[in-house]
């Protein structure tokens, strides 16, 4: 049986993709930078991989592979240099499907690296499937977790806006379906949750589950950017956050949908389920 190669396999989405492919009995190769140190589920085979590798090394990574789950690591801005050669190698090795983890609304936002990757996949005639997820619920359990745990506060300049966030585990579920069932090549799927969520609602749900008050601070843009600067965040990170939350305040990510349900036969994970499953992350230590 030929294998599915999963990039970003130690990451939030990639690990969910691994789990769901293995549950479907697929042969799965986790493409990881550190095969000895990577924590992978039983049944996944680790293979050394870095987007900075040479074309010849890509050919070896792709040996025995017929499908690829492709993601752009947040650390990589220059996709032309690091992702395009890998896509070209996948074409050369006759990979029959590349499922790319893109971004909700990417078709309207030509300045994102994801847009460039989508364009390259199309232009090179690759057999692509685009997954365009909304904001991940897991942002609350990763990048924002410390603030929620230590200050009991969600500190984001989202105003009174709504976001139809999606659980990354649902993206993994969808990826496994589109990689193993026919009819998904050449398709693009926007993946949102089934309910638009305000940050006030999220704070209320966390308060209920955690049993202590969690507040949504609703800072102004200026206060938020000043806090990021005080935390020593780099200028380009701060500029991206500014742009992202301007779009969020315009409700550009508010629209829910039922694409997860349509593709997998099960509804998207709810906020309540997510907060319950991840509750330990926000409990103060000791
Ligand atoms: N967060 C959101 O709300 C959201 C919404 C829509 C789309 N997205 C997109 O989703 C993607 C992020 O997915 P994620 O959250 O699952 O990522 P993540 O958890 O940050 O994981 C990043 C993965 O990339 C790997 N990696 C880093 N540098 C690499 C390199 N040079 N070569 C090979 N692998 C490398 C890491 O492996 P190591 O173990 O080796 O470090 C890790 O597995 C981004 O493209 C982001 O724009 C995010």
TrEMBL record:
PANTHER family listed in its UniProt record: PRESTALK A DIFFERENTIATION PROTEIN A, PTHR43162
CDD domains xrefs: TMR_SDR_a
**Which domain of life, per UniProt?**
Bacteria
The protein here is known as SDR family oxidoreductase
Fetch the InterPro entries from UniProt: Ergot_Alk_Oxidoreductase, NAD(P)-bd_dom_sf, NmrA-like
Residue ranges of domain NmrA-like in the record: 3-233
Fetch the SUPFAM superfamilies from UniProt. Answer: NAD(P)-binding Rossmann-fold domains
* Any single Pfam family the record assigns to this protein: NmrA
């Amino acid at each position: 049986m030929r294998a599915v190669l999963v990039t970003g396999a130690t990451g939030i989405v990639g690990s969910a993709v691994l789990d769901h492919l293995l549950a479907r009995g697929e042969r799965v190769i986790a493409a990881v930078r550190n095969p000895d140190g990577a924590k992978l589920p039983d049944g996944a085979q680790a293979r050394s991989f870095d987007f900075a590798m040479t074309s010849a090394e890509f050919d070896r990574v792709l040996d025995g592979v017929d499908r690829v789950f492709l993601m752009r690591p947040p650390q990589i801005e220059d996709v032309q240099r690091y992702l395009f050669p890998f896509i070209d190698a996948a074409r050369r090795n006759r990979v029959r499907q590349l499922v790319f983890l893109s971004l909700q609304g990417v078709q309207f936002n030509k300045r994102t690296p994801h847009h460039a990757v989508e364009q390259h996949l199309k232009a090179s005639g690759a057999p692509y499937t685009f997954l365009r997820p909304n904001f991940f619920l897991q942002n609350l359990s990763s990048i924002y977790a410390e603030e929620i745990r230590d200050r009991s506060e969600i500190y984001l300049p989202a105003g009174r806006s709504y976001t139809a966030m999606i659980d990354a585990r649902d993206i993994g579920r969808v990826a496994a379906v589109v990689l193993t069932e026919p009819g998904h090549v050449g398709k693009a799927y926007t993946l949102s949750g089934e309910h638009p969520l305000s940050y006030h609602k999220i704070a209320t749900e966390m308060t209920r589950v955690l049993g202590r008050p969690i507040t949504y601070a609703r800072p102004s843009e200026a206060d938020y950017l000043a806090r990021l600067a005080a935390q020593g965040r780099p200028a380009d990170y701060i500029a991206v956050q500014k742009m992202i939350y301007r779009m969020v305040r315009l409700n550009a990510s508010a629209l829910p949908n039922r694409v997860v349900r349509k593709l997998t036969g099960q509804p998207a994970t709810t906020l309540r389920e997510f907060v319950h499953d991840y509750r330990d992350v926000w409990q103060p230590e000791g």
